[in-house]
Amino acid sequence: MKIHRRFSRFATSGVVVSALFLNVTPILTLEAYASEANGVSAIHTDARLTALVPDVYRSKQTLTVAVNPEIAPIKFVNDDGDIAGFTPDLLSAAAKVLGLNVNFVQSSFDALIPGLSARRYDVLLSLGDFPARHSKVTFIDYLNVGQTIVGAPKRGLVVKSLSDLCGLKVAIPRATAQAEKANEVSSKCVADGKKAISVATYPDTNMTLLALTNDSSEAAWVDSPAAGYNTQKFPEKYQAAYFYYNGSYGVGFSADENGNRLAAAFQQALLKLQQDGTYDKLLKKWGLPTKDGRPTFPINDPMK
Fold this sequence. Notes:
By secondary structure, the chain is α/β, with parallel strands linked by helices. 35% of the residues lie in helices and 23% in strands.
């Protein structure tokens, strides 16, 4: 099985630069985890499950998998310019069970779904499963996640509910669920006679956190895995102020017949990886709590 993870120097450089400005390393090798092999070499192809793969994908052999690698330890770029993280390892293992190869290609977050719809990509590597996306994307849910409001320790940000963000300058990754939620909360702020949230959107999570370090914003609203990694790694720079669960991460497939059949095949491969212990090993390897796992890998069924 071939797993293509390397990005071009140009594609990698933009992500590295944002981390250098941040003085964080979410896109660099996670030393505690990097020493462990991803275990894909020990996975065996299951002929019974390969038969579930639609001919259009089986004939290609190599799936083009789009990824926005900005959320360590879920998906990021390591020191060698390769895709790394929990989800790349998990998807690579499932693909091997199905006798398929994967080629990871970089994409911005807001280009993922349009690229899938245009058939430039076969699979989307991890994004939030929300019902509004189901007309275009079929999701296999594999991990429950939330959102975290992050502040700089020097500011002493206290957030007991999202309404405490009224009147604050808040940095948010663009085209994300939290961007929609921020508009909703801000409208309620105004309706309650408070100041609106001043929202600034950024291309990715790294740049969103940068807004805290350069004092452009008073809070950053990001996915909980990225917040957890950065607050633990750099407690002098980042402090979690508020957390809430809001759904599940899913691997995305086209919502047409062949895409749904490919999703069903991957679901069976993932269930096999859960049964043989691979799924739990990968959660442990990447420091993710087992309580957030979705070991039944439901389709289009995010945590409510």
